[in-house]
């Protein structure tokens, strides 16, 4: 299962001398289920951390899209108590005051300085445009959760799309790359919405990643063709189910692809094996005005076509069809191979034409040139000259 | 067929609003997208009335940022619907910010625009904080009409608009408010760059699209509404997303909502 493979890779962490494994989770507005996948991965990794099964000894969560309280409730609902969370979870709060407006207003006395209570240690980030400061914050918080000198921590960023709103793609890529190459980072993963960015931004993020998990719609709806009551059920289906495709990049350069379906439930998501025929046939066949697909009968007929230079695997000796069969054989043949009917059954009650070719006596693929017995023009000339000389002499 | 004057019409049902709540819970962002052919302003008017007229919520406040029309425009429309905005304004239940008459610091560019936005946000937060401290307070509503004109006022910076919406959303989750914004879909029709409207669709909990019928104009059906309700997602669990699609007809004092083919 793809989701389990991702969890294992993040749990195992970085190998000595290698960069940390990095996961990109991407979705789009037509299959907006990436946040569910992010929460699932976070919960799985948290479970491994709290039970000391993972290389990472803690998580630094960078929260842009949802509040620290949301994540505290999420992880508590997965059987983590508040005291346990404080040991291994740190949150960089880029949600509450990302540009420092609330601090400015509080300092000028316009609003009161009400801080929101949360059960986890959240470090407020007041300027998300400064990615160097953000990197330092992440590393500092990471060092708080590791227990040994050579310990490592995991990093989770809930929206790289928000980072890209405030910084350039090169700055964002630099941040992620620096995190990935940091010797105390065990693994990292992030979510971004692919349709909010240009292709080069998406590609840059995928190049940095060792795993790319893509959430796509389960149904191809009539997007762009206008809304009506007929395509509402399909759109609603895409809000609850999706195709989950993962691409793993191995160290030796090989790519491994895995695919399954995901279904949203009240308490999270569930992954099930993909129904290959349904998904594949919908995604690979282009939309044109003529039929590119085969019907069942057409598939059966194609399977029955006899290939001239290939044995049929039916135990009979292989006989290569050389095109030298009688006309009567060609008239009576239906679906049998041509090689099986070299001799025609004679039936005196039926009229038939029997044609025996001169070259029938020869073995197939004989190297002998069948025209060898013919006299060439040059031979005739020399013979003629020779005869004339004899006659004149 | 249900009119907007009935206790619970198709729009309210699709939004998950019922009469007891008087217009729904808080901590949500509702995005209304309309087009030139089908204006979504009637939805704004309907929601203003719902939030101010509920007998169960006498202390709720509507904070209204207007970039599109003067106060008199909304007052006249809501009077026909049976709601006196003038009285509500005097009672501090309808807090109206006339953004049309603000002096925009055009010469300062984006920095000046951000300072303006900061001051506007400060006023909103102060208003919401004051309301939340009152006895019997349940919800506040922040409304913006409309986002595309707000972007114009901010020197075309869609990023600043998104920052402002993010702050309003965090305020909504902190003080249990409802944020309602109106935007025009066809203003952002472009294939060059990803549309900022898409960012708002990601941010919103409820998206209402007012579109013309696929078959074109009609005298008895003015358009169709598609309501995508993503439901509430908290750390402990999420409710299921739902989509409703139905037709509407705007009349003088109310709006009729009905499913396709159900009109006699």
Explain briefly what this protein structure is.
The complex is a heterodimer of chains A (393) and B (264). Chain A is α/β, with parallel strands linked by helices.
- Per DSSP, the total helix count of chain B is 8
Q: What would CATH call the architecture of the domain at 2-222 and 229-273 in chain A?
A: 3-Layer(aba) Sandwich
Mean pLDDT of chain A: 79
Gyration radius of chain B (Cα, Å) is: 18 Å
* Oligomeric status: heterodimer
CATH architecture tag of chain B = 3-Layer(aba) Sandwich
**Dominant shape of chain B:** globular
Tell me, briefly, the overall form of chain A.
Answer: elongated
Considering the protein shown, what is the CATH homologous superfamily of chain B?
P-loop containing nucleotide triphosphate hydrolases
End-to-end separation of chain B in angstroms reads: 9 Å
The largest contact between protein chains, plus residue counts on each side, is: A-B, 48 and 42 residues
**Topology order of chain A in helix (H) and strand (E) letters:** HEHEHHEHEHEHHEHEHEEEHHHH
Beta strand % of chain A = 15-25%
Helix-strand category of chain A = alpha/beta
Name the CATH homologous superfamily of the domain at 2-222 and 229-273 in chain A: P-loop containing nucleotide triphosphate hydrolases
Family (chain B): Belongs to the ELP6 family.
Pfam family, one (chain B): ELP6
Pathway (chain B): tRNA modification; 5-methoxycarbonylmethyl-2-thiouridine-tRNA biosynthesis
Protein name (chain B): Elongator complex protein 6-like isoform X1
Features:
heterodimer; A: 393 residues; alpha/beta; Rossmann fold; 10-stranded mixed sheet; 14 helices; 37% helix; 18% strand; elongated; B: 264 residues; 12 strands
């Amino acid at each position: 299962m793809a989701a389990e493979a991702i969890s294992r890779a993040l749990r195992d962490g970085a190998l000595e001398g290698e960069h940390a494994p990095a996961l990109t989770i991407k979705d789009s507005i037509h299959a907006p289920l990436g946040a569910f996948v992010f929460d699932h991965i976070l919960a799985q990794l948290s479970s491994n951390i709290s039970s000391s099964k993972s290389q990472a000894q803690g998580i630094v969560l960078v929260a842009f899209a949802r509040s620290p309280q949301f994540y505290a409730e999420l992880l508590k609902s997965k059987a983590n108590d508040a005291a346990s969370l404080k040991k291994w979870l740190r949150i960089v709060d880029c949600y509450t005051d990302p540009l420092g407006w609330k601090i400015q207003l509080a300092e000028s006395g316009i609003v009161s300085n009400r801080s929101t209570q949360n059960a986890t240690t959240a470090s407020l980030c007041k300027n998300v445009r400064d990615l160097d400061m953000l990197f330092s914050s992440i590393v500092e918080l990471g060092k708080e959760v590791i227990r040994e000198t050579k310990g490592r921590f995991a990093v989770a960023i809930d929206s790289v799309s928000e980072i890209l709103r405030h910084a350039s793609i090169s700055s964002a890529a630099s941040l992620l790359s620096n995190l990935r190459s940091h010797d105390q980072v065990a693994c990292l993963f992030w979510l971004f919405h692919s349709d909010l960015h240009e292709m080069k931004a998406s590609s840059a993020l995928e190049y940095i990643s060792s795993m790319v998990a893509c959430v796509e719609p389960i149904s191809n709806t009539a997007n762009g063709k206008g809304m009506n009551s007929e395509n509402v059920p399909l759109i609603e289906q895409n809000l609850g189910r999706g195709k989950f495709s993962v691409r793993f990049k191995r160290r030796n350069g090989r790519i491994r692809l895995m695919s399954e379906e995901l279904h949203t439930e009240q308490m999270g998501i569930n992954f099930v094996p993909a129904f290959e025929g349904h998904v594949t046939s919908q995604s690979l066949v282009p939309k044109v005005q003529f039929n590119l697909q085969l019907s069942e009968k057409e598939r059966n007929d194609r399977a029955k076509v006899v290939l001239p230079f290939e044995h049929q695997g039916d135990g009979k000796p292989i006989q290569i069809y050389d095109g030298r069969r009688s006309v009567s054989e060609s008239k009576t043949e239906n679906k049998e191979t041509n090689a099986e009917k070299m001799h025609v059954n004679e039936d005196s009650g039926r009229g038939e034409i029997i044609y025996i070719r001169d070259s029938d006596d020869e073995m197939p693929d004989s190297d002998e040139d069948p025209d060898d017995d013919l006299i060439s023009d040059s031979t005739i000339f020399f013979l003629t000259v020779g005869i004339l000389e004899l006659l004149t002499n | 067929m249900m009119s907007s004057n009935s206790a619970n019409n198709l729009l309210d049902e699709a939004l998950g609003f019922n009469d007891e709540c008087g217009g729904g819970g808080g901590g949500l962002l509702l995005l209304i997208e309309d087009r030139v052919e089908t204006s979504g302003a009637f939805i704004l008017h309907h929601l203003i009335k719902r939030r101010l007229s509920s007998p169960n919520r006498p202390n709720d406040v509507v904070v209204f940022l207007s970039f599109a029309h003067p106060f008199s425009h909304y007052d006249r429309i809501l009077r026909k619907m049976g709601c006196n905005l003038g009285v509500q304004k005097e009672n501090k239940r309808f807090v109206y910010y006339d953004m049309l008459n603000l002096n925009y610091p055009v010469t300062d560019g984006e920095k000046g625009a951000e300072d303006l936005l900061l001051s506007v946000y400060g006023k909103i937060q102060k208003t919401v904080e004051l309301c939340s401290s009152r006895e019997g307070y349940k919800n506040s509503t922040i409304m913006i009409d409309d986002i595309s004109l707000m972007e114009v006022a901010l020197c075309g910076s869609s990023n600043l608009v998104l920052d402002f919406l993010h702050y309003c959303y965090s305020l909504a989750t902190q003080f249990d408010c409802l944020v309602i914004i109106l935007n025009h879909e066809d203003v952002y029709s472009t294939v060059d760059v990803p549309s900022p409207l898409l960012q708002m669709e990601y941010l919103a909990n409820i998206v209402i699209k007012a579109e013309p019928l696929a078959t074109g104009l009609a005298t008895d059906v003015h358009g169709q509404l598609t309501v995508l309700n993503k439901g509430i997602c908290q750390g402990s669990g999420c409710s299921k997303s739902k989509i409703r699609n139905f037709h509407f007809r705007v009349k003088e004092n109310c709006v009729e909502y009905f499913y396709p083919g159900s009109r006699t």
